Target: Indolepyruvate ferredoxin oxidoreductase beta subunit
Amino acid sequence: MPLEGLVNKMNSVKNILLVGVGGQGTILVSKVLTAGLMKAGYDVKMSEVHGMAQRGGSVTTQVRYGEKVYSPLIGKGMADILVAFEKMEAVRWIDYLKPDGIVVVNNYEIPSMPIATGKAEYPHGILESLKDNFKTIVIDAAQAATEIGNIKTQNIVLLGALVKAFNLTEVDWIEVLRETITEKMLDINIKAFNRGMEL
Model:
């Protein structure tokens, strides 16, 4: 393939970076996202980094999709969209966002161990700083999930917001949720997804 053709193929690849804290359901969202994009006929690569996930540490998943994807990894300055399930994680991973990329950030705080033990303070002004420097969409996913009836669905609220913000509406996401979420939790997660789309 001529170099120009390869560059065009690489340019057609979209990069989604999902970041959060262990237990927030980041990996479930990336699996739903991957399944939906594959259904739509894209080549999709996904990678996950758990870190100290079990202890409330960072969890990141990277989803890359397009006509042909050669690597699952997103380099610094390459993410088209960064979805942060927690505010401080947005700051921690912002270097990976393209200058014209979109940040979808959950207005939610999970204190890290130093903050929880009083050795550090949770930083102030995160949302203002993001808004000053990037195209930023702030979602109160925890509040929306609580109103729906289950705080644990805030990850699916964020999935709905991501689908809307990134215009991934060609996929039947409700069908994908049916195939990836247990029947017991399906209805509430469909509500969460639709709420995220509205937000």
Q: What stands out?
A: Residues 1-10 have pLDDT under 50 and may be disordered. Residues 113 and 119 are 9 Å apart (CA to CA).
